[in-house]
Amino acid sequence: MTDTVLATQAVREESPPRRGGGRNPLRHALLIALGVVMIYPLLWMLSSSVKPTEIIFRDPSLWPSSFDLGNYVEGWTALGAPFHQYLLNSAIIAVGCIVGNLLSCSLAAYAFARLEFRGRKLMFAAMLVTIMLPIHVLIVPQYVLFSQLDWINTFLPLIVPKFLATDAFFIFLMVQFIRTLPIELDEAARIDGCGHFRIYWRIIMPLCTPALATTAVFTFIWSWNDFFSQLIFLTDQDLYTVPVALRSFVDGQGATSWGPLFAMSIVGLAPIFGFFLAGQRYLTQGIATTGIK
Amino acid sequence: MRATGTRAAAGLIGAAVLLLTACGGGSDSQDGPVELRFSWWGNEQRAQATERAIAAFEAAHPGITVTGEYADFNAYFDRIATSVAANDAPDVITMGGAYPREYGDRGALLDLAEVSQYLDLGKLDEAATSNGRFDGVQYGVPTGVNSYGVVVNPAVFEAAGVSLPDDTTWTWADFERIAAQISAAAPEGTYGAEDPTSADALDLYSRQSNEGLYTPDGKLAISAATVTTWWEMTSRMRNAGATPPATLTVELGGQPAPEQTLMGRGLSGMRLDWSNRLAAMRTASGAPLVMMRAPSESAGRQPGMWLQASQLYTISSRTEHPEEAAQLVDFLVNDPAAGREILTDRGIPANPEVRDAISGAFNENQKVEAEFIDRISEQVGPPLVVGPVGSTDTRSILERIGSDVLFDRATPADAAARFVDEVTAAIS
Amino acid sequence: MTEPDRSAPPGGALSLASPPTAPAPAAEAPPAARRRRGRRSQRAVRDGRVAYLFLAPWIVGMVVVTIWPIAASLYLSFTDYSLLRAPRWVGLDNFAEMLGDERLVSALGVTFTYVVVSVPLQLALALALAMLLDRGVRGLPFYRSVYYLPSLLAGSVSIAILWRQMFGTDGLFNDFLALFGVQGIGWVSHPDFALGTLVVLNVWTFGAPMVIFLAGLRQIPVMYYEAATVDGAGRWARFRHITIPLLTPIIFFNLVLQTIGAFQTFTQAFVVSGGTGGPSDATLFYTLYLYERGFGSFDMGYASALAWLLLVIVAALTGLNFLLAKRWVFYGD
């Protein structure tokens, strides 16, 4: 088995031919210009987060005339609990979701991509159909279900389903990635006497690092930004998550604390951005760079 | 396989229906502390004030603990609808506008007569209290009093060299003329008025010709002719530059937060709005905004204004603790200890005793608001007729058809006819 | 799924049967494939039980968590259900009402326009940037992160305000137009352009599919490129005959998921239009209309019926996608 895998690994030891594009100033100018357009709204938000609330809309210039971190202090402490409580709640949910999705979706994906069984196509279709209904018509029955389980105001409704592979998106994603891997890997491993669980765990999973990393990053971001279900299932202020807490700054009728809202939005963005920065290394670990012992 | 599948599905659906309809879970605490859930919408400042009021209530009523739940306006009503549907509603629910009627008429709210020995409505402003009463059943208790009028920025008037109108006699023609004058004289980007179209403005305007939006028995009262006249006026104003161009008006309509309005940015002379938003706009604009009586149809006639409950406290019909819930509501509206924390956040207190007890604590902005309510209290017309079931749709219908008028995609007359048709369909 | 050339990328111009660097089993496709076909039927039997073990969490999830809210929504689509009162069976009334529902027609129009325009644009941009960023650029992680950032923001409360800062009357875009002496308008709030700004918003978040493309690009064994280079294939030939064919499963994935996602577009339309779908229903997305009927008008029965119509439409299109995929998607298995 080892030979097989190593042989495949050897296939890719270095990036393919580069053609001096690395230092082409024109290309960089283009990339940077596009980048500025891309993040302009973010820069505006960053700039607004250091302006006093009253002048954010009166003086919409990008460069703040005054620089004041007061919004951060105010935003951090303005809500029922200090803001790190909400960060922690969101983090707990995110980590739970990531672990759940990685395990359950990869198991299901392996079955769909590599195993022959009765009803495979039908089940695969059923799986895709489950993500085609909008959440708004499902939320009431879901709420009934979870309230019967006495799970309202716990993180369970948000985490447990992930361990049951309810995010069909990621199953499909991993199926697609597994199917790009040559089946001969499995064949060879099978000849070496590996069972399905070994093939899954020792061969397919390591080779799917980019897909797993993508799943982790996306799960993190989605659960971090998911507003609607967190709003509905968590009513206790101490359990509020970042997006729900952020809405607490908004009041359609009265005053909205825009300064603290933008400041805490930046704070709330930092962890997902950090997670992405940390995770992107694995996103691009191709078939060759994966180490298998 | 198939047969079991069908049976299982049937069973699940059956269970779903049962769960949706049958009674909820059983907490069975007769003795021991009573736990109440109290929900409201709004921002964190309101939450802080409310939490302090809750603490005062808990101090005065040992044995009752209250958990506050809040969210922003849109999210709030999604959550309430979901939890009511799943039979898990909070005990005390804050509502507004036509929502108490939507919920009350469908049996989700407690008839407050059942808990009248714990909840004294006698001292509250009658007009506001009537906003929570439908077909003789009291479902809601006013949190405070509010009125719809014209917010005016004297600084913009002065800069344009236009003198402030006499709001005891002014008419819509004056409103139109003044707005055009200001726009003409003011720097670019500043407008005499913001486009005044809203459901509340139509209510006000049609009350001046003795219509109003709805009849007491839940029909549409406003006539297509009245709506036509209104849209002819707003179209004239827009074409004259007295109000902003259509795109700007729509842009502002989608972002109604006080800070984002032209008034809140000091860029308009007049804006129709609720008195409880005045303070936020004063803070945002940094200008000494004042509130004026609405223009009337002809000079000196009653201006169609009314005092309205800014919000209403209601009690879930499924609460296990109606007495304690009623005590909480009573405390919130009748006890100065609660008033001192909430101040004018939910409108000027509807109980005059509470208002007098706390008026010393008002800041400049709150004083202006309270003075305006005092001043127009003697001039208001009959209480507002709250819309029937289905009338929560009126706002979105008006916004949709209104933007057709703004972009000249419909004539005022056609749009008015459509408005009447669609609202009639929504409330039937 | 595709029978010919399992391990070698399709593409007549190149012969990759024996890559020079690695005589790995992966390259010996024909015998392997033959072996497998012969064993398929026995394997099917043996795989069955194992497969259900692998699928156990998913099956439990289906039965316990997923199915019954779906079943409930199907049931509710045949009822008059206000959320606040028990549902009342009305048979096909909701579906009959759809036939005469003009707003449903405009919602379908908006949604289809959006899907047809924004999905291809977003995917093309994502693929182009992924290619550009895949290799050979200095500061690659930096660019990747910058381009990905908007995707993190897209669902947040602040996006509505930020979008106005871009395309509102006083927005950046109009400042830019002013440089050329053009007086801009409020793009977000004009019935003719509002949907366009939402398309731009969706395209702006191309970071998500881009990341998936990047990951997919790294799955392509380098030996193919090396072999092709040895065979004298140019840059375009390598892109055309190696990258694209081997990336097709990922392109397909992005296409299917972005299409399903675009049909369900809600948050962005909701926050940018303030929940109204305005102006004049120009941004009345299907799910927005459904939400408005369900939670705004307390007509959850009708909303459920709308949801099931959406499901049928999306499922049909997805099925079509899968059928067409047989013609252009190449798998390694």
Automatic annotation (TrEMBL), chain B:
The lineage of its organism: Bacteria, Bacillati, Actinomycetota, Actinomycetes, Pseudonocardiales. Pfam families: SBP_bac_8 (PF13416). It comes from Pseudonocardia xinjiangensis. This is Carbohydrate ABC transporter substrate-binding protein. InterPro entries: Bact_solute-bd_prot1, SBP.
